[in-house]
Amino acid sequence: MRVAIVSTYQPRPCGIAVFSSDLRAALVEADSSVAVEIVSIVRDDPHSHPPEVVATIRQDVASDYAAAASELARRDVDVVLIEHEYGIFGGDNGKFVLNLANELTVPMVVTLHTVLASPPVGKAATLRALCQRATLVMVFTETARRMVVEQGLAEFERIRVVAHGAPDILTAAAWSDNPGVIGDRDLAGQSEGLGLPSLAGRTVLSTFGLISDSKGLELAIRALPAITAVHPEVIYLIAGQTHPEVIHKEGESYRLGLQRLVHDLDLYDHVCFIDRFLTIDELALLLARTDLYLTPYRSPDQIVSGALTYAVAAGCPVVSTPYFYAEDLLSSGAGVLVPFGDFSKLAAAVLDLLGSPAKLGGARAAARRVGADLRWASVGKGTLELLSEAAQGVLRPAGAAGSR
Prior knowledge:
seven-stranded parallel beta sheet; six-stranded parallel beta sheet; 2 domains; about 40% helix; single chain; Rossmann fold; alpha/beta
């Protein structure tokens, strides 16, 4: 079988790009006879791409989308997987993606990385048209499947649920007694490149990912004075560069605002910014050293979070606001949910966990149990079953193998 994935892709610093790179590797690992090619959506086209990239689409050039469909037809692709996220496709309300979808002559599967509870009319129309064109629609949680059905984007029978994957090195980090040695790999030397202060004797809170105001990082920073009054050893690591689309529109205003807040609250000794996109080895080191992971996101609409998936896979206890994905992933006891926008409740939740080794250990054990099901090896097999189903055109019942 020959598969094409349409997505942002490395070297573009983007969460969907990382997801698609990991997914491709997982599909090939699941079945080495499967060819997986990439159509990469680019902003500023670099001069070179990995060899698996067979075509590029300039995000804001409408004709590139139809041209990519023609290239895939020429390459005898059996099934096309489109990774859909708002903001990565050009045209009003991202409608250029339909130029690609409508020209495809083979089955198409769409993965929905965001499902908005109340989407704007134009965006909803584009997504509905894309999903109606698809043979199957893939989502990451049962909550997302319910929302897709309720909004009339696709019928229940055409929706499959497959977990968001996490690299094996993170599940190895969950069981590491030495944060510098993960599995059979000694990564301690790489920690020097992170530019961190000494973490000896520190209790580490962390958040990582591309930075934008949707992450609500100011909430965690405002919670820190109450936390450090009880635990002066606490340090909060914020890892990641500003989202490229945010820089394109707003520059670094949000990050600068966070840095001003750190200054105003006199938290220099308790907050460290790591201003770059971390490699997976660096993330494994960061999460292995994390005592408590924070996702203080501002909107309930976040239906999936790669960062939260990675943190739980690495066995990190979590304090989070109750966006959809956090509710689903943390329901096992891997974390604590606090109200949106309430930094005092966030501080209280952190203090409760840090003050109770039994509670913190219980949340870590729950995260490890959940993380065991998030390994890319199992997710790759489930996705490959789904793609084979679409390519063959014989759809199983929605609850059959390959869904959960």
